[in-house]
Amino acid sequence: MDLELQGKAAIVTGAASGIGRAIALALSREGADLVLADIDVAGCERTLALMRAARADAQGVVVRADAGECADHEATVNAALDAYGGLDIAVNNAGIGGEAKLTGEMSPEGWRRVIDVNLNGVYYAMHAQLPALLARGGGAIVNIASILGQAGWRTASAYVASKHGVVGLTKSAALEYAERGIRINAVGPGFIETPILGEDPEALAQLAALHPVKRLGQPGEVADLVAWLASARASLVTGAYYPVDGGYLAQ
Ligand code: NAI
Q1: Contacts of 78 (CB under 8 A, 6+ apart)
Q2: Which atom of ligand 1 is nearest to the CA of 118?
Q3: Which ligand 1 atom lies nearest to the CA of residue 17?
Q4: Contact 30, 99 (CB under 8 A)
Q5: Is the CB of 141 under 6 A from ligand 1?
Q6: Which residue of 11, 12, 13, 19 sits with most ligand 1 atoms within 8 Å of its CB, as the best mutation to test the pocket?
Q7: Residue 37: which residues within 8 A CB-CB, separation 6 or more?
Q8: How far is the CA of 200 from the centre of ligand 1 (A)?
Q9: From edge to edge, which strands make up the β-sheet containing 182-189?
Q10: First to last CA, the chain
């Protein structure tokens, strides 16, 4: 299926690693021009090199942006306007796991940082992106939530609350902008093999076993769904939450 993203300008936050890198590669493969935003500039440069290795005329600019800082999202949108003259697609993917602690033992600072990056960051992002998408006459936003945007997890209450918040924020904003041509959806990955999960083989095997498919997901499996949602092929899809989780939430 040709997603027809040639000439579309797209922002991906958290583009230096894991799922964000795979999303940037998928959008670029389909023809989009990218703004790669992250606190890890070197990682974004690596993503850009991979984009160019896959498609010689791939377009990308790198912006150092902290997802928990409102002004950094405005700078990211301005980078898209400067480089490409507008914005068509935004994928708000940057996220952190935070402290693995029981709610009664989690530090207030740890709680606030997770909410700042994972939830406030998506609000800051959309607040900056929506005027630019309106100016373009429409577009698509995909927010990366989690299966933990629909279910709980011991020792991750801040993360779980942030991801549930992302799903609610996505639905509400989708209702607000549906008539003006902006589609806003959330994607909920199961456990995906990226650095956020750490490297302990035993822990990774235990996480894999929780999924009916009995394996961890790969970043590209999330990216293909995101690229489709970002494209006009998904023209009737808005306000939705799509799991991509090997059956986790069906249990
Ligand atoms: P990752 O750790 O490989 O990548 C996260 C990226 O976000 C990194 O490039 C990191 O530098 C960047 N980042 C972290 N804090 C940032 C900040 N304050 N500002 C800007 N960028 C920041 O992790 P992964 O797995 O690729 O995660 C991407 C998204 O997917 C996150 O929102 C995560 O919560 C979500 N997710 C991941 C799952 C998994 O099992 N890997 C499962 C469900 C959701």
Answers
A1: none
A2: 32
A3: 9
A4: no
A5: no
A6: 19
A7: 11, 12, 13, 14, 15, 44, 62, 63, 64, 65, 67, 72, 76, 79, 94
A8: 18
A9: 60-64, 33-38, 9-13, 89-92, 139-144, 182-189, 241-244
A10: 31
Residues 159, 177, 241, 248: which is the catalytic one?
A: 159
Encode the chain (251 residues) as per-residue pLDDT tens digits. Answer: 899 999 999 999 999 999 999 999 999 999 999 999 999 999 999 999 999 999 999 999 999 999 999 999 999 999 999 999 999 999 999 999 999 999 999 999 999 999 999 999 999 999 999 999 999 999 999 999 999 999 999 999 999 999 999 999 999 999 999 999 999 999 999 999 999 999 999 999 999 999 999 999 999 999 999 999 999 999 999 999 999 999 999 99
Q: How close is the Cα of 179 to the center of ligand 1, in Å?
A: 31
117 ligand 1 Cβ < 6 A: yes
Active site residue 159: yes
Whether the full predicted model's pTM is greater than 0.90, yes or no, is: yes
- C-beta of residue 80 within 8 angstroms of C-beta of residue 9: yes
Question: Measured from the CB, is residue 216 less than 6 Å from ligand 1?
Answer: no
The amino acid present at 221, given as its one-letter code, is E
- H-run or E-run covering 207: helix 201-209
How many angstroms separate the CA atoms of 129 and 79, rounded? 11
